[in-house]
Amino acid sequence: MMSLRDELLGRVSSIPAFRMIGPPGWELHEMAPDVEQRLVARARERLMAAHQPVLFARLGPLVAEAFASARAQGAIFMIMPGAETPPGLLAPVTILGSLQRSTPSAPLDARVAEAIEHHGARALGDSRHFLRWEHRKRARIDGDEAETRTLVYLTPLPGTGRSSALQLTATLVQPIETDAEMDARIADWIAMIDASVATFALVRP
């Protein structure tokens, strides 16, 4: 695994600067309109070069929908495979980063307790910082039924008295029925995401 682009990912003003090691070629993108336009333009260039204008006609709306959904979830940034990602590390997954804050009606401590009790949340590996849990649900993707598998990682932000936390959410889409080879591939992707998140560290000013 290599550093994500620019290695230092604390380019978003609402969270402290941090470092995180990701799979080679994966990139961090802020949730800004110009970033969305740049990704669509890059995809258009590749698909046109590959003589696939029909695919681009479908891709543009899908990218716009993905950004709109991410913003609706309060995402500040997303991490995803980029142009230089080796084929073996391409995975149908996007990691969203969002800031979670306590409110009088929904304190973070209560949310953590609920995740432990109802979702089996546990510490991520040997990490003393991240709590990890996952949940699944069925959805229709392009008319076909599929299963979404969501991995959630939560870490409190220092100096906030456990009133603010960074949440990383990774969602994979997989067929309802999978064979042994696909099951093994999905397990590898999940292990890759876990390993990446485990490298997360805040950068001291």
How many alpha or pi helices? Answer: 4
Q: Can you count the beta strands?
A: 10
**Percent range of helical residues:** 25-40%
The rounded Rg comes to 18 Å
Instruction: Give the overall pLDDT as a whole number.
Output: 77
Sketch the major β-sheet: 7 strands, antiparallel
Q: Helix- and strand-based class?
A: alpha+beta
- Share of residues in strands: 35-45%
Within the largest sheet, what's the order of strands? 3-4-5-9-8-7-6
Could you say which overall geometry the principal axes of the C-alpha atoms support? globular
Residue windows where pLDDT falls under 50 for at least 5 positions:
1-12
User: Cα distance, first to last residue?
Assistant: 25 Å
Order of helices and strands: EEEHHEEHEEEEHE
How would you portray this structure in words?
The protein has 4 helices and 10 strands. Helix content is 33%, strand content 36%. The model is unreliable at 1-12 (pLDDT under 50). It has helices spanning 33-49, 53-72, 108-119, 180-198, and strands spanning 2-8, 18-22, 26-30, 75-81, 93-101, 122-123, 131-141, 144-156, 164-175, 201-202.
How would you describe this structure in keywords?
alpha+beta, 36% strand, seven-stranded antiparallel beta sheet, single chain, 33% helix, three-stranded antiparallel beta sheet, globular, 205 residues
Topology:
Elements: E1 2-8, E2 18-22, E3 26-30, H1 33-49, H2 53-72, E4 75-81, E5 93-101, H3 108-119, E6 122-123, E7 131-141, E8 144-156, E9 164-175, H4 180-198, E10 201-202
Antiparallel strand pairs: 1-2, 2-10, 3-4, 4-5, 5-9, 6-7, 7-8, 8-9
Helix pairs in contact: 1-2
